[in-house]
Amino acid sequence: MLAFVLTVLSTELASLSVGEASTFQLLSVTAGTFVALTYLYGKTGICGVFVGLTFYYSFINIKPSGIGYLYTLIISALLMLSLRVIERIKNHQHATKFIFGYFVFCLPGITTLALSILAPNELNRTLALHLYLTDSIGILITAPIIALAILSVQRIRSPKSLKKLLMSLLPAHMLCKLALVATLVLVLERLGQEHVDSYLYYMMLAPLVILAVLTFQN
Questions:
Q1: Does 129 have pLDDT greater than 60?
Q2: Exposed, middle or buried, 157 (CB in 10 Å: 0-12/13-18/19+)?
Q3: Per-residue confidence (pLDDT) for residue 114, from 0 to 100
Q4: Could you give phi then psi for residue 194, rounded to 5 degrees?
Q5: Contact 212, 140 (CB under 8 A)
Q6: 10, 25, 105, 123 — which has fewest CB within 10 A?
Q7: Residue 109: CA atoms inside 13 Å, Cβ hemisphere, count?
Q8: Mean pLDDT computed over 200-210
Q9: pLDDT reported for residue 22
C-alpha cells in the first residue's frame, strides 16, 4: 500500500510542472521513488509501483498514445531485472557501490533507450537527453533521501531516538552534500528555462553526476 501511494503521489507531482523540460525534471522524483521502494521492499515494492502507475495512467492522467502504459511496463521489467542483479552481487565487497551506480546510470539509460526505440514519435533526442539525465540525477538525489526517510520513520519510536538519529549526521559531510545537490538543482533550473542547442548544460551535468555518485556512494 505504501508503494502504491508513493508511486501515485510522486507521479502526480511530476504532472504539476509546466513545460516539457520541467516535466522531465520532476519525473526524476518519480524514478527516485521507484528505486527506493525496490531497494527497500523488493518484489512487493515493484508490484506497488506497477499497480500505482497503471492506476495513475488509467484514471488520473490518461495518455491516448499509450506512452504511460509503455513506460509502466518498461520500468517495472527493469526493476524486476535489477533484483536479479542485486541477488547476484550482494555478497561482493563493493556490492553497494555497484548497485548504486547501476541504478544511477544503467536504469535510466536503458529506460530512455527503450522508450526512444518503441515510441520515437513521443521522445525526440532532446527529450531523451532530458529524461536520461534528470532521471539519473533524481535517482541519485531522491532515492537515498526517500529510503532514509522511510527507514527513519520506522526506527523513530521516541524523542530520544530522533535526537540520536539527528546527532549521528556529520555536519561537515552534510554541508558538502547539500552544496553539491544545490549545484545540480541550479544547473537543472537553468536547463529548464532555456532551450539549449549546444548541449552545454549536459556537459556541465555529467561531471557533477559522477562527483555526486562518488560522494553519495557510502
A1: yes
A2: exposed
A3: 93
A4: -125, 145
A5: yes
A6: 105
A7: 6
A8: 59
A9: 47
- What torsion do the CA atoms of 86, 78, 98, 155 make, to the nearest 10 degrees? -60
Q: Is 179 helix (H, G, I), strand (E, B) or coil?
A: helix
Instruction: Determine the straight-line distance between the first and last CA of the chain, rounded to whole angstroms.
Output: 29
Average pLDDT over residues 190-206: 54
Range 28-57 average pLDDT: 91
Whether pLDDT at 56 is above 60: yes
Give pLDDT tens digits for 60-91.
988 887 888 999 999 999 999 988 888 888 78
**CA–CA distance, 30 with 139 (Å, rounded to integer):** 8
How many Å apart are CA 168 and CA 163, to the nearest integer?
9
Pick from 213, 209, 216: nearest CA to 187: 209
* pLDDT for position 34: 92
Cα 189 to the center of its chain, rounded Å: 17
> From the CB of residue 177, how many other CB atoms can be counted at a distance below 10 Å?
16
Q: Is 199 left (phi over 0), alpha (psi -120 to 50) or beta?
A: left
Under 8 Å between Cβ of 32 and 141: yes
| Gap between the Cα atoms of 163 and 152, Å rounded | 12
- The CA-CA-CA angle for residues 133, 136, 106, to 5°, reads 105
Query: What is the distance, to the nearest Å, from the Cα of residue 141 to the centroid of all Cα atoms in its chain?
Result: 8
